[in-house]
Amino acid sequence: MTKPLRLLTLVLSMTCALAYAQQDAYTLNERLLSATRDGDQAAVARLIDEGAAIDSRNRIGDTPLISACKKGLTPMARMLIERGANVSQADVQGITPLMAAAFDGDEEIAALLIAHHADAAATDRVGKTAIEYAAGRGHTAIVQRLLDAGVDVNAAYRNHLTALMWAAGYDQEETASMLLARGAKRDLRDDRGMTARDIAEQTHSTHVVALLSKG
Questions:
Q1: Span 152-215: which CATH code?
Q2: DSSP 141-209
Q3: Would you state the pLDDT for residue 18?
Q4: Cα–Cα dist 24/40, whole Å
Q5: How far apart are CA 207 and CA 166, in angstroms?
Q6: Distance CA 208, CA 200 (A)
Q7: CA–CA separation, 37 and 194 (whole Å)
Q8: SS3 at position 162
């Protein structure tokens, strides 16, 4: 065999080996995402051990951690976080694991994400943050944890809405009461010139209207 032919054979062999390696990695990652969809924590752990990328993404950008948070799979989410999953990776809509946990009300996972320095200031494609999701859903304990982590109680987000305004709009009395106790201002106005009480009245949030009418 001539030297040029031997070189060509070597190049082809290396190219084939690389293609097979890439195919094997792709297959592992697909199996990992499938196991996550099925909620099979043992399979997820095994596939990561076998070399699947822990932050593999499906067609809508969900990593295994995002999927676990969206589905409320607390033990799986905890395992993924502890094994080094990216805690701030967002899906194609900008939803992060912390936003998903805040929406779902999973305080344990929210606390673990915060402890692992998840980005509490991240915004999704409609401009919402984790504290807005938690406040609007009435997940008071998660709102409290976000404030403890340094989120400004009076921060204004898209349309100049504050966490108190989100709680007011959905009649989340307990959350609104806690926010007030933490220094939330009643007189801040959104881009329409409405205060939290105005928003509560507009949305017939009677409990928060009564709360904000005191004092």
A1: 1.25.40.20
A2: HHHHHHHHTT--TT---GGG--HHHHHHHTT-HHHHHHHHHTT--SS---TTS--HHHHHHHTT-HHHH
A3: 41
A4: 21
A5: 14
A6: 6
A7: 42
A8: coil
* Cβ-contact 73, 39 below 8 angstroms: yes
Amino acid in the structure at residue 155: A
- pLDDT (tens digit, 9 = 90+) per residue, 167-213? 999 999 999 999 999 999 999 999 999 999 999 999 999 999 999 99
Q: How far apart are CA 97 and CA 90, in angstroms?
A: 7
- Tens of pLDDT along 60-78? 999 999 999 999 999 999 9
Q: Do residues 147 and 116 touch, judged by C-beta distance below 8 A? A: no
What residues contact residue 87 under an 8 Å CB cut-off, 6+ apart?
65, 81, 96, 97, 98, 113, 116, 117, 118
Q: Which amino acid is present at 214?
A: K
Domain parsing of the chain, residue ranges? 152-215
Contacts of 72 (CB under 8 A, 6+ apart): 104, 106
